[in-house]
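agent> fetching stored inputs for the cytidine-5'-monophosphate docking request
agent> found them:
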Amino acid sequence: MINNRDLAGRIIVALDVGDKEAAFSLVRELEFAKTFKVGLKLFTAEGPSFLRALRAQGKDVFLDLKLHDIPNTVSETVKVCTRYGAHLMTLHASGGRDMMNRAADAARSEAENQGLPKPSLLAVTVLTSLNDRSIQEIGISTDTKEQVIKLAKLAEDSGMDGIVCSPWEIEIVKKETGQDFLVVSPGIRPAWSSAHDQKRIMTPSQAIEKGADYIVIGRPIIAAPSPSEAFDKIVREIKDQ
Ligand code: C5P
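agent> prediction call returned; pasting tokens
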């Protein structure tokens, strides 16, 4: 029987705020949330000490830096992020097989050397802000869905632990990749929340039903009048689906 704590663990809260004061105020309020996503903005503002402080509060860290560079630079950066104790981190699948292979090796060896758990490496396939036309403009001739599948398979084959994709691709990616390959989806909107700038959205229950291992939710929780009530409401909705 799946309990509320397990369900809460599948919701990753995006800490899309500008400084540690705003971030910790949310972390304090969301006592049942286990994993928080730290993106480029907050990480650039507050740096590694913020990650250590988050971990010291017993929270898991999803470090969403979407790395994309030559294999040496990415693998060395993955080592540093592993030392920060990130549980999940992202890199672009379009960086290629060698970049992903080297990143996976770096995470494994650094975790072993430091006696830390190995972070799960998630590949970003096609950004949800891109559509068929925009990927053609950058020289990709397939459509976005085909490109997502192609990159998901390459990521799996290159030692990644999972991918980030829109909820509309969860089912097909789950079908085309192994059972343990993680699928993490942003673009989640409860029926009672505004879509904001997200276009290809699904409700939390639908995304979990399609097979998402984790869902990433920002504004519907962090910009709600009561973030903790919004979080609890989402957990209840998933449970009652
Ligand atoms: O506020 P909202 O729920 O839209 O936040 C979603 C989070 O997931 C943001 O941090 C956003 O940058 C991230 N994300 C996304 N789409 C992707 C990858 C990441 O919305 N393809």
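agent> quick read of the result: The chain has a mean pLDDT of 95.
agent> awaiting further instructions
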